[in-house]
């Protein structure tokens, strides 16, 4: 019997995300199925990196198929890099850590708040301008 399913989850960063001495960040996680003692015919592990991350590289102790994708979610400006690794016939023997190294400039964390601030500022300025405009067709005489 063949069963196909997708498991997606987030992990607490303080346990898996580290910074190297040269300023490069890396994620240290294990390449395995989250179900204990399971053999998987085709395992795909996707790591979604923060927006603005550059130069992703993966260190895996065995041969895997690797590629990168670009994912856009709400309010993304340049999109997020997704590192995809696939391996066939994964079992408990393949349970070993892998690392995803990437460079990240913290200024990209300000992109969404600044964009929202600018849009709200423009909206309020448009409201103030609209309220101060005199859109009447004829002028009224003052006595």
TrEMBL record:
Which keywords has UniProt assigned to this entry? Endoplasmic reticulum, Membrane, Signal, Transmembrane, Transmembrane helix
Q: Which GO terms describe its molecular function?
A: transferase activity
Pathway(s) annotated for this protein in UniProt:
Protein modification; protein glycosylation
Q: Which domain of life is it from?
A: Eukaryota
Annotated localization: Endoplasmic reticulum membrane
What Pfam families does the entry give? Ribophorin_I
Protein name listed in UniProt? Dolichyl-diphosphooligosaccharide--protein glycosyltransferase subunit 1
Kindly list the organism's lineage: Eukaryota, Viridiplantae, Streptophyta, Embryophyta, Tracheophyta
> Where do the coiled-coil regions begin and end?
none
This protein's membrane topology, according to the annotation, is:
Single-pass type I membrane protein
Recorded GO cellular component terms are: oligosaccharyltransferase complex
Q: Where are the transmembrane segments?
A: 114-133
Protein family according to the UniProt entry:
Belongs to the OST1 family.
* A biological process term (GO) from this entry: protein N-linked glycosylation via asparagine
Q: How does it assemble?
A: Component of the oligosaccharyltransferase (OST) complex.
Q: What does this protein do?
A: Subunit of the oligosaccharyl transferase (OST) complex that catalyzes the initial transfer of a defined glycan (Glc(3)Man(9)GlcNAc(2) in eukaryotes) from the lipid carrier dolichol-pyrophosphate to an asparagine residue within an Asn-X-Ser/Thr consensus motif in nascent polypeptide chains, the first step in protein N-glycosylation. N-glycosylation occurs cotranslationally and the complex associates with the Sec61 complex at the channel-forming translocon complex that mediates protein translocation across the endoplasmic reticulum (ER). All subunits are required for a maximal enzyme activity.
